[in-house]
């Protein structure tokens, strides 16, 4: 906080990305993890625009990865019951 200006930290969604990588959809989880790290690093150096863009991409990838993971689990369970 230099010059009396408060910096707002953009969320990185790092834990969500780790969860998606391990439990839902590996390829999308890894991509989200990379974007989450970019958002965290951009936050650390004060690049709010870059952090916001990386955060938005990480969130989108996490949502898609979670939905894909849930669909894959439902299909797997359904096929096991048949």
Would you mind describing this structure in some detail?
- The protein has 82 residues and is mostly helical.
- It has three helices and no strands.
- The longest helix is centred in the C-terminal third of the chain and has 34 residues, at 48-81.
- The model has no long low-confidence stretch (mean pLDDT 91).
Summed up:
The chain has 82 residues and is mainly alpha-helical. 79% of the residues lie in helices and 0% in strands.
The oligomeric status of these chains comes to single chain
- How far is it from the N-terminal to the C-terminal residue, by CA? 60 Å
**Low-pLDDT ranges:** none
Q: What's the number of extended β-strand segments? A: 0
What proportion of the residues form beta strands (DSSP E)? under 5%
* Class derived from helix and strand content: mainly alpha
SS summary, helix count: 3
The helix content is over 70%
The shape is rod-shaped
- Summarize the helix and strand pattern as letters: HHH
